[in-house]
Amino acid sequence: KEPGAEEEGETTYTCRRCGDSYTEPIPAKGHQYDTKNPIYEWAKDYSSCTEVIHCMDEGCEKNLTEACTITVKETKKATCTEDGEEEYTAEGSYGTDTKTVPVKAKGHRKVVDKAITPTCTEEGLTEGSHCSVCKEILKEQETVEALGHDYVSEVTKEPGAEEEGETTYTCRRC
To answer: What is residue 24's three-state secondary structure?
Structure first.
């Protein structure tokens, strides 16, 4: 009987003269693993990877498995508007495997630019916004014209027979 990966075999010796026989065990030969062709099983999020080595013995389904060491390298930085890439490398005892994974654009981080109320003599601005990361203007502030004075008149000195009167003009806003 031939030895298997885990089972002993045996050899039977028989005397040609008298027919007496005895049996000796043959040690199991152990699994013949395909270490030159490991398979890498990655987690969906690439946070872990297992190196799988298959046994080459016919009918054997035994595998060696080992957790790999993972390294991540940013190969293209994601910006607010453009996707980036990361390279994940799994290193096991029998080789390495690398996956390039897209990284979604981060989107703008909106900051509100507060409106500035115009005065009688100075312009104001409408509310706007920009991105705090890339500084892109998301909503431009528009200039609001100065309001101008809104005068109210008040007679502060009545005119006399020989004297002029006086009227004071005061702005309602300022």
So the answer is: strand
